Amino acid sequence: MKYYYALTVIGKDRPGIVANVAKVLYELNFNIEDSSSTLLKDQFSMILIISNTSQMSLLELKKAFASVRKNLHLSISARQIDALDQPLKKVKKHMISIYGSDKPGIVYKVTQALCDLNINIVDLKTRVSGSKKDIYIMILEVEVPIDVKISSVNNTISTISKEMDVDFSIRPIESYSI
Questions:
Q1: CA of 145: how far to CAs of 47, 84, 94, 115, in Å?
Q2: pLDDT (tens digit, 9 = 90+) per residue, 103-158?
Q3: pLDDT in tens, 44-78
Q4: Which residues contact residue 99 at a Cβ distance below 8 angstroms, ignoring those fewer than 6 apart?
């Protein structure tokens, strides 16, 4: 039997964060099943799904990271999660890009509209770029239920696009693999 945990790591970016976290996991005989990391301004963040054939208390797991947390000034949290034996859902995968002048409400309005259509967001990235005029860029990878028409998604996002004065595009993702 496998025991699964979700581990989050956040701290000021510096070399060695991933290596130090991976070392602790290796020493505890954990397998990294899934992971994602990114740099947000100067903050490095990482989320990992880890597994072990031996159950470990959350207190033991947190104690194992004590020196890494202290030496690299990190915030590390863990929680045990259920087994990952979920059946695959029948969905259509799409990429939605939103871009335009930066203003409050873009993320809220788009994500709420997708929620209202029962569309699952599996990845979301945002950035502000540009030197003279700030351009806001939001890229979402979504899972659209089979019974939801892409024309409905397009019409919904189009309404928000006009209201927020931003541009958008929606395109299907043919395959999803690393």
A1: 26, 21, 11, 12
A2: 999 999 999 999 999 999 999 999 988 766 789 999 999 999 999 999 999 999 99
A3: 999 999 999 999 999 999 999 999 999 999 999 99
A4: 135, 136, 137, 138, 166, 167, 168
Residue with tokens 């919904």: 156
21's enclosing H/E stretch is helix 17-27
Residues 6+ apart with CB under 8 A from 24: 64, 65, 68
Strands 3-12 and 43-52, bridge-based pairing: antiparallel
Rounded to whole angstroms, how far apart are CA atoms 153 and 98?
13
Cα 154 to Cα 156: distance, rounded to the nearest angstrom? 6
The whole-model pTM stands at 0.80
**Owner of token pair 């006009």:** 162
Of 82, 64, 66, the residue nearest 74 (C-alpha): 66
Tokens at residue 23, please?
A: 């070392």
Tell me the C-alpha distance between 121 and 54, whole Å.
Answer: 32
